Amino acid sequence: MSSTSQKHKDFVAEPMGEKKVTVLAGIGEALGKRLEDKGFDKAYVVLGQFLVLKKDEELFRDWLKDTCGANSKQQGDCYGCLREWCDSFL
Question: Which of 10-14, 26-30, 31-35 has the lowest mean pLDDT?
Fold first, then answer.
């Protein structure tokens, strides 16, 4: 299994509440700004899209690439973070 970042560990350790989109693993300031500009300003809004896409990795990665230009690593980090959060809290 691949190692996870501290950002990932922090995110999956607790409910997300009203946290900004930039708390998601793989989403920094630049991608966060692009997501915010398209209406995805909170982590829970991105989670909603993740769930609409039925937690499908390929669909979510494609959506993230198309929506904010995330590269493969960023896509994978964000997907893994949301998947693990769902496994813990849903």
Answer: 10-14
Mean of pLDDT values over 14-32: 96
Residue type, 46: V
Residue 25 burial by Cβ neighbours in a 10 Å radius (0-12, 13-18, 19+): buried
For residue 17, count CB atoms less than 10 angstroms from its CB and return exposed for 0-12, middle for 13-18, buried for 19 or more: exposed
Residues 49 and 40 sit within 8 Å (Cβ to Cβ): yes
Which pLDDT band, with edges at 50, 70 and 90, does 4 fall under?
confident
Are the C-beta atoms of 14 and 87 separated by less than 8 Å?
Answer: no
First to last CA, the chain: 22
8 A C-beta contact, residue 21 and residue 42: yes
- Its pTM stands at 0.93
